[in-house]
Design goal:
167 residues; 7 helices
Length: 167
């Protein structure tokens, strides 16, 4: 009796499955770090390269989305450090997550993203993860900070965003 052998899933298949499941997450992180010196396409390509290179090293010790967030965040921050020309400006004309059905809501969301884009890279990552309703433990894991540090930073970030919005 011959045993049925199942062929292992190739790296290409695992990569394509990961992209299908987490594409919007990757795009969102890249959007928050895109500016005049680092276009969305440049950042997305850098993240894709690093995801491909790191896929075999992912051991499943955390959720895949946590690993992807961390890798995308680190890639975007490293990209900005390597170019040394980070201006902090973000073009928001074509963010796909912002629906055009409600003009007031759209304007509010664009304003929120504009304010967030002015934050430093770490604060930007923290507030975006919080907006994605990630638990403090996961935010801490992604950023490398303690859970207590996340809580205090979030408090300060929210207050800073309110101040920027009111000025």
């Amino acid at each position: 009796m011959a045993s049925a052998r199942t062929s292992p899933v190739s790296k290409d298949e695992r990569f394509m499955e990961m992209l299908a499941s987490h594409r919007q997450l990757i795009i969102k992180v890249c959007y928050m770090y895109a500016n005049e010196t680092a276009t969305l396409d440049d950042l997305y390509q850098e993240v894709m390269i690093n995801l491909w290179q790191g896929l075999d090293k992912w051991r499943g010790e955390c959720k895949m989305s946590t690993w992807i967030y961390r890798l995308a965040f680190n890639t975007c921050v490293s990209y900005h450090r390597s170019t040394r020309r980070h201006n902090g400006g973000l073009q928001l004309d074509a963010i796909p997550e912002i629906a055009a059905d409600d003009s007031t809501r759209t304007a509010d969301l664009k304003n929120m993203y504009r304010l967030i884009s002015k934050l430093n890279p770490l604060d930007k990552a923290i507030i975006m993860l919080w907006l994605d309703e990630k638990p403090y433990d996961e935010i801490a894991s992604i950023t490398g900070l303690s859970k207590a540090n996340i809580a205090s930073r979030l408090y300060r970030i929210k207050n800073h965003l309110i101040e920027m919005g009111n000025s």
